[in-house]
Write a structure and sequence with these properties.
The chain is of the alpha+beta class. It has one domain. It is about 30% helix and about 20% strand. The longest helix is centred in the N-terminal third of the chain and has 16 residues. It starts with 9 loop residues before the first strand and ends in an 11-residue tail after the last helix.
Length: about 300
């Protein structure tokens, strides 16, 4: 299943062994109304992905990331943030998933989540994937799902500004409110399926794709990719029964697979329109002695 390119932004790595790149964003409203707890309180500046993920990128790559949108590819340290959550809600997000997840994703030379799974006994094996019980492997799938849901929910709160002329968002419709109450701890996870994949390919491990709609699959859904961990969300009663056995919520299932084709599909949409900035060309020339023409994105 592939993701729509509509509103898509991504980060692509400098081609080095330890290269990872972020795309971080958040949203804001006038006044002090809190998106999560719905209280009128002071709000803290809140990125979609926390500073700990940015430190992983900086430490492994040793330079600013390459940020790719539909119109441009450039080296940038810019992080789009705004006041979104109160202090209590921010701590809730950190404790329930963000801090734990920062220790599981691809670190540049190590991938803790994938390593844990590859030394375990699988639930089943197929030619294109292997499935594991996260709980049997000692993986906290509650925090895994919470983290993915929090990123998806935040992405739906507004049109994020990714460049002076571009924005991106996802439309969750009724699922936005059901995810909000889940994240607040008031309700269980909404009816549907969450499929989590630990990716074995470098292209997926070394980048971050913000949430976007899946429009070309069997059923509509949403996908996001964070440093080698792919999330796919499908809501409602129309989700095929075959999807249920892959669900991380119902069965604590985690899939290990090569995700390269899906990542390159998304890269391909962007690479056809994005133009490399002078800064990116200079960075590639200085670090690798190559030109951007010889460095196609995602290959």
């Amino acid at each position: 299943m592939s993701a729509s390119a509509e509103g898509l932004s991504a980060t692509a790595p400098h081609r080095t062994a330890n290269s990872v790149d972020p795309f971080r964003s958040s949203c804001s409203l006038e006044g002090n109304w809190q998106f999560l707890c719905l209280q009128i309180l002071a709000r803290n500046s809140r990125p979609t992905v926390t500073a700990s993920f940015y430190r992983i990128i900086r430490n492994s790559q040793g330079s600013d990331p390459v940020i790719i949108t539909a119109n441009a590819a450039q080296v940038s340290s810019r992080q789009v943030t705004a006041h979104e959550l109160c202090w209590d809600c921010e701590q809730l997000f950190r404790q329930n998933g963000e801090d734990w997840m920062a220790r599981q994703v691809f670190q540049g030379a190590d991938f803790p989540l994938l390593n844990r799974l590859q030394f375990a006994i699988p639930a089943w094996e197929r030619h294109n994937h292997t499935a594991y019980s996260g709980s049997a492997c000692g993986v906290d799938t509650t925090k895994l799902v919470y983290f993915g849901a929090s990123v998806l929910w935040r992405s739906s709160l507004r049109h994020w500004t990714t460049s002076p002329t571009e924005t991106t968002t996802v439309d969750l419709r009724p699922n936005q409110e059901s995810l909000r109450t889940f994240l607040l701890g008031e309700t269980s996870f909404p009816a549907g399926v969450v499929i989590v994949t630990a990716c074995t390919d470098y292209e997926s491990q070394a980048c971050f794709f913000p949430p976007c709609a899946i429009r070309e699959g069997v059923v509509p859904g949403y996908s996001l990719l964070v440093l080698g961990v792919s999330f796919r969300f499908f809501f409602g009663p129309g989700v095929p029964a075959d999807f249920q056995r892959f669900c991380c919520v119902q069965h604590t299932r985690i899939v290990v697979a090569n995700h390269r084709e899906q990542s390159l599909h998304s890269y391909g949409h962007l690479s056809r329109t994005a133009k490399e900035s002078t800064g990116l060309k200079n960075a590639l020339r200085q670090q690798h002695g190559i030109s951007s023409e010889n460095y196609p994105m995602g290959t």
